[in-house]
Amino acid sequence: MNRPLRPVPKPIKRKKKPRRERQGLVDKPHVARVRRLPCWACYEYGMTQTTPTEAHHPIIGRLSQDRAPDVEAQPLCTHHHRGGDPNKIAIHIDPKGFVAAYGTEADGTAWAHRMIETGRFE
Q1: What pTM was estimated for this model as a whole?
Q2: Secondary element (H or E) of residue 55
Q3: Per-residue model confidence as pLDDT tens digits over 32-41
Q4: Which of 14, 35, 41, 68 has the fewest CB within 10 Å, making it most exposed?
């Protein structure tokens, strides 16, 4: 009575969630609210915002390349975030200059939380 051998089934691999999600650092609804706010540097210093708002995750004071939690994201226009306008200091191009001109990243995060809590720009 020879039966044909059946292949042994391979275990099902479950796809892991990304590390940031496993660590509880992801908050997509908060980031979406931040992107609906105006750029905090433009708003506070009376500049005209001519580009869309992006969610910037704080970088100053961190020692690793990991991104800060989404709840610390702050609204910055493209020019204040990544550059492109010689009249605006971009945080990723000149972090120290940005802090000297506009304030710390903690200021931007606090501003975003105040605006979201008050529903001022919803």
Answers
A1: 0.76
A2: strand 53-56
A3: 999 999 999 9
A4: 14
